[in-house]
Design brief:
heterodimer, A: 309 residues, mainly alpha, 2 domains, three-stranded antiparallel β-sheet, 3 strands, B: 240 residues, alpha/beta, Rossmann fold, six-stranded mixed β-sheet, four-stranded antiparallel β-sheet
Chain lengths: 309, 240
């Protein structure tokens, strides 16, 4: 009898640990499911529309490729390249003892393509910021909280399942903005048939001269925009989370004062680390504040509270 | 019968005012419990604490023997007092969502219930009235095979003719293995199905017990007991 009950107990314990493991696996897969669901939700505004917005710069780039047709295309001309090329990326050609370069001159659509790209991306980035922040707000503090937070997952997993797809979409958009800038400002060309050899040059040969390309993507700009997004996104999540915890004891004016001070502190820290990153040429420094904010968000979201009782 | 919900000395403040003040109660499995109180007395706060949407200042909450967290989310189906789905979605999208994230969701049951109330799965929420949306939402949340159903004002937005359907749906979801806590101030409509009653006042339980016992003790309907209990408060006097 006692053996039976011991056996039963062991079986129950095994079943319980199996159940626990099964549940943990399920929760893990639920986290992935949630992240994929969020990514699908963001894909139009965060992936497809920014990609479409690169079309004007692609058209400009197409014109640039016509530089090989100098003499036949009215907008592509060879101009004498003043300095002797040193960079392995340089695509100047030697003709009659002089270095010459193909240049896009007075192409009538150039300005309008640039304007469409610039304004288009500004609108996309603003919409993306509003959409992503609204989405995380509705899930944790808005009307969808009762539904989305009822999912048997920890708050951390639910938050990361929102944050990671949002970050991917933002980085993708900023990368495309930087790429479009390159495409608008200069052209790529293969040198000696090697695919890796590309050059970025200014179309405007007068004024500031040719930009002999080195970093064809301005990664510092991508990093800066990403840092700004992370600080704003995580900063807002942290501030709302903080306010929702403070409203137990404090009245609104006191909460707003604290939120204001915290905002100033975040802005000051972000500025200092950004300057330090550029001065020391260490882009990684830019991400100190976002990492701190991410940790604070994860901690505060674990003790999550709605704004209203 | 085992204890499904156990709350001990629970306190929760908002802007310095104690919404719940040392609240203690317990709910056993196999009961339909009415959480009866006027507006603004902490019914929704209590449900949100049970769902982990709010954290307590002090005290202890256990559901199915566990502290509030992802494990308790697995056994609770919470119907809030407002519509949670996006208006541009269709009923079938909501069904897909519930099926995907809640393993205890019974798709067959939801389809049966929707058929009963003549709702096409392709209907958009934006094309429905407030009462219709609430009805669909109730059907969706009651189609989970949960251990504990928390229903926050399920009758508030529904016309009297549809209340019968809602009450029958609640009864249909209820069994020996689970419990239902219904928060409402529309006591008259719901009192016939209640096994137990908990009345809240000043963030505490002011009256609780089995419905039949209370009716016998006071010689009145629960609705009249409710009115008597809270009418005095309006005049600023005590109960005695």
């Amino acid at each position: 009898m006692s053996e039976n009950s011991f056996g039963e107990k062991m079986m129950n314990e095994n079943t319980t640990s199996e159940n626990k493991e099964a549940m943990q696996n399920k929760i893990g897969s639920l986290g992935v499911k949630l992240a994929l669901r969020n990514f699908k939700k963001y894909i139009i505004i965060g992936v497809i529309i920014p990609l479409l917005m690169t079309i004007p710069s692609m058209i400009v780039q197409g014109e640039w490729f016509k530089n090989d047709k100098a003499g036949t295309d009215p907008y592509v001309k060879y101009e004498v390249y003043e300095s002797v090329p040193e960079s392995w990326l340089d695509v100047c050609e030697e003709k009659d003892g002089k270095y010459v370069i193909g240049t896009l001159v007075d192409w009538p659509l150039h300005d309008s393509m640039e304007a469409v790209t610039d304004y288009g991306f500004i609108i996309i980035v603003v919409c993306l910021y509003i959409y992503l922040i609204r989405d995380v707000y509705l899930t944790f503090w808005g009307k969808r909280a009762a539904l989305e937070l009822a999912v048997p997952c920890s708050r951390t997993v639910i938050f990361l399942a929102k944050f990671i797809p949002a970050m991917i979409c933002e980085i993708w958009t900023f990368f495309l903005i930087a790429l479009s800038d390159c495409f608008l400002e200069g052209g790529f060309k293969l040198k000696d048939g090697a695919i890796a050899m590309q050059s970025v040059r200014s179309y405007e040969s007068a004024g500031w001269g040719y930009m002999t390309g080195v970093d064809f993507i301005p990664w510092d700009s991508v990093c800066l925009h990403t840092m700004a997004f992370l600080v704003i996104y995580l900063g807002i999540v942290f501030l709302i989370s903080l306010c929702s915890n403070l409203n137990r004891k404090m009245k609104d004016p006191a909460i707003l004062s604290i939120a204001g001070l915290v905002t100033l502190l975040i802005a000051a820290l972000s500025f200092v680390t950004e300057v330090a990153a550029f001065e020391n040429n260490m882009l990684i420094l830019m991400f100190v504040v976002p990492v701190i904010l991410l940790i604070l968000c994860i901690i505060s979201i674990r003790r999550h509270n709605l704004m209203k009782a | 019968m085992s204890e499904l919900v156990k709350i001990n000395n629970l306190t929760r403040s908002f802007h310095g005012r104690k919404v719940l003040d040392g609240l203690s109660l317990s709910v056993e499995t196999g009961k339909i419990v009415g959480l009866l109180a006027p507006n603004g007395t902490g019914k929704t706060t209590l449900f949100r604490l049970l769902m982990g949407l709010l954290t307590e200042d002090s005290g202890e909450i256990r559901v199915d023997g566990k502290p509030i967290g992802k494990e308790t989310n697995n056994v609770i189906s919470y119907l809030p007092d407002y519509f949670v789905f996006d208006d541009f979605r269709r009923i079938k999208n909501a069904i897909e969502y519930m099926k995907e994230y809640f393993s205890d969701f019974d798709e067959k049951r939801v389809k049966e219930l929707l058929e009963k109330i003549h709702f096409d799965e392709n209907r958009k929420f934006s094309a429905m009235s407030k009462g219709e949306k609430e009805q669909v939402q109730l059907v969706l949340f009651l189609s989970r095979r949960a251990k504990l159903y928390l229903l926050d004002e399920p009758l508030a937005a529904v016309d009297p003719a549809k209340r019968e359907f809602i009450i029958n749906t609640i009864l249909g979801s209820f069994g020996e293995e689970n419990s239902v806590i219904i928060s409402t101030h529309l006591v008259l409509d719901i009192e016939k199905i209640l096994d137990e009653v908990i009345m809240l006042k000043d963030g505490k339980v002011c009256l609780s017990g089995e419905a039949d016992v209370l009716r016998d003790e006071y010689g009145k309907k629960l609705n009249d007991i409710f009115k008597d209990t809270f009418r005095y408060e309006e005049g600023g006097k005590g109960n005695e």
